[in-house]
Amino acid sequence: MKILDTERLTLRELTAEDADFMLKLLNEPSFLRFIGDRGVRTVDDARRYLLEGPISSYQRFGFGLYLVELKGAPVPIGICGLIKRDALDDVDIGFAFLPAFWSKGYAFESAAAVLRYASDVIGLNRIVAIVSPDNEPSISVLTKLGLQFERFITWPEDGSQLKLYAIGD
Ligand SMILES: CC(C)(COP(=O)(O)OP(=O)(O)OC[C@H]1O[C@@H](n2cnc3c(N)ncnc32)[C@H](O)[C@@H]1OP(=O)(O)O)[C@@H](O)C(=O)NCCC(=O)NCCS
Q: Whose Cα sits closest to atom 28 in ligand 1?
């Protein structure tokens, strides 16, 4: 199901058919370093990840991570969307793109549209983001989107120190 269009991009719900793309994205060195190792090593693992992650989130919360494609050509380039985690009270925005599509403003363009969607369609006033303190590209996207640094948090899953950014109240 299509969620939204931007000038250059289309965001749609992920399906189990996107397993090949997710396998690639989840094993990018940048994803492993800055987001984490989801333990997805095969297409079957990726299918399970999609079912238990984004697809289950659509059913449970009415939102989730979406596939970002170039408009007009169904070329998947990354993911961007909204996540409700047990460890956080607020909904957070997340994004990750294949390196071939970095530095073209796609992360900013898709995340800006997701923030508007979160407020206008889902009715969320406050959106947060959690980011590793050395993830300069992501921090740059977040601040450009208008999110502001609030505090450091200790991530319960691995004890790491993360920065919490937020917009709205
Ligand atoms: C974070 C990520 C999505 C950014 O993608 P991107 O394509 O570079 O983003 P955009 O092109 O939309 O915007 C990047 C902004 O960051 C800046 N930037 C890019 N690389 C940078 C770097 N190494 N250091 C500082 N700023 C950087 C760009 O200059 C641009 O700002 P500008 O528009 O003011 O020039 C991408 O690096 C990625 O997929 N990383 C792996 C996954 C990840 O870390 N996700 C975030 C988890 S919190």
A: 103
